[in-house]
């Protein structure tokens, strides 16, 4: 789908759906929404059989990761509970005004999702990131039933898929020496600078054992950094969302890349259970010889985000504006990276206490113009079995980053 065609289609969606958040020139819109997730089974008979056997339990399926490439949006559905028949799916953007709650199409095919014991296929996909060459890098935890009786069926892995041909290029298991006991390998970020993606590295966050795993595509090598800035803040590990109080102690989680300048760029990062942002230059973490010689390179970025400043995912657009999910505020925050990281320079690009309940994942596509893509999923309610199947619980949302920051402290015109 051409960029102009997509923009027209998204504008049509904005006019059709009633739950848009719009204030002045700022807007975030819903592309898809579901009360419960359904799948596009090969036949109605197989759909019915999966429901009857418990292979498909709609209430146990939650969308987690989001990515977009050209005419498709990709969504992950980890196997945190039983009854999740497929863990990575695609949704076509052609004809997106036909239904707001389309069934998920398992990707790249059903064959990649039908076996619990075949570690050559997908087990439980958490998140994905697409490089500018059109390869989607898929992070698979290898674990199922995390919210029931956890089982580690396969090693955590990284899979590369060519989105032009929809074929798997290669799959790497993360070496066991870099996956600690009770590791939660939860997020992924691709870093490539040249036109052919030959210098590609992947950064992988371990939220429960507080580590940063680095992968180098040129030779398939992995290494791991540990640092005290990857840990959660105790007081920020206590959450309250729409009256639900819960405790999570998630460490390193959100990662985003700053501007490439003079052969280097910063990696911004934070623990989820934290209101603090840090950074490290990527020249440090791309060098395996620095694993035990870099403690002073991981630095505080600036001020805290406040008492409810927990953030899940973040990304930086071409204009140097970071967008991030404020999971306790039903909001998308923003920060212009050309300004100091001060609380007074942190803005709100979107807020909605109905459609933005727990914005979990956030990505920015490679198109011109770019769009920010967000998935909201009420994860705490899902974890504690409080999802109401009669309400819209899950959404794929989008915003125009340039319009979203107009008139805020994140706007380039305010520098």
From TrEMBL:
InterPro entries: 6-blade_b-propeller_TolB-like (IPR011042), MRJP/yellow-related (IPR017996). It comes from the Eukaryota. It is found in: Secreted. Keywords: Secreted, Signal. It holds the Pfam family MRJP. Its main location: secreted. PANTHER family: DOPAMINECHROME TAUTOMERASE, PROTEIN YELLOW-RELATED. Belongs to the major royal jelly protein family. This is Protein yellow. It comes from Eumeta variegata (Bagworm moth).
């Amino acid at each position: 789908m051409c960029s102009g065609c997509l923009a027209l289609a998204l504008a049509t969606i904005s006019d059709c759906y009633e739950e848009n958040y719009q204030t002045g020139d700022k807007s975030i819109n819903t592309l898809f929404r579901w009360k419960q997730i359904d799948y596009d089974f090969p036949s109605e008979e197989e759909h019915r059989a999966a429901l009857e056997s418990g292979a498909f339990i709609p209430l146990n399926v939650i969308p987690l990761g989001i990515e977009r490439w050209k005419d498709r949006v990709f969504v992950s559905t980890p196997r945190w509970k039983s009854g999740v028949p497929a863990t990575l799916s695609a949704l076509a953007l052609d004809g997106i005004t036909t239904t707001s709650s389309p069934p998920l199409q398992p990707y790249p095919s059903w064959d990649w999702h039908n076996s619990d014991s075949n570690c050559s296929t997908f087990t439980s996909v958490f998140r994905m990131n697409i490089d500018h060459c059109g390869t989607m890098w898929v992070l698979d935890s290898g674990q199922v039933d995390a919210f029931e009786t956890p089982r580690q069926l396969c090693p955590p892995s990284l899979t590369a898929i060519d989105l032009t041909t929809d074929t798997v290029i290669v799959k790497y298991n993360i070496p066991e020496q870099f996956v600690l006991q009770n590791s939660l390998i939860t997020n992924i970020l691709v870093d490539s600078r040249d036109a052919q993606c030959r210098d590609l590295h992947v950064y992988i966050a371990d939220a429960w054992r507080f580590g940063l795993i680095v992968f180098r595509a040129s030779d398939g090598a992995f290494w791991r950094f540990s640092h005290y800035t990857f840990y959660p803040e105790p007081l920020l590990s206590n959450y309250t969302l729409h009256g639900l109080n819960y405790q999570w102690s998630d460490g390193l989680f959100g990662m985003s890349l700053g501007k490439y300048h003079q052969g280097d760029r910063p990696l911004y990062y934070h623990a989820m259970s934290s209101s603090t942002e840090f950074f490290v230059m990527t020249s440090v973490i791309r060098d395996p010889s620095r694993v035990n010689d870099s403690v002073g390179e991981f630095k505080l970025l600036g001020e805290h985000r406040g008492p409810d400043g927990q953030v899940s995912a973040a990304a930086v657009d071409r204009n140097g504006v970071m967008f991030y999910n404020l999971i306790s505020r039903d909001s998308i925050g923003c920060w212009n990276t050309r300004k100091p990281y001060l609380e007074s320079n942190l803005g709100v690009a979107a807020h909605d206490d109905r459609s933005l309940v727990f914005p979990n994942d956030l990505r920015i596509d490679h198109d011109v113009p770019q769009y920010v893509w967000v998935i909201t999923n009420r994860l705490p309610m899902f974890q504690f079995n409080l999802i109401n199947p009669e309400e819209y619980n899950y959404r794929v949302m989008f915003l125009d980053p340039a319009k979203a920051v107009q008139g805020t402290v994140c706007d380039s015109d305010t520098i």
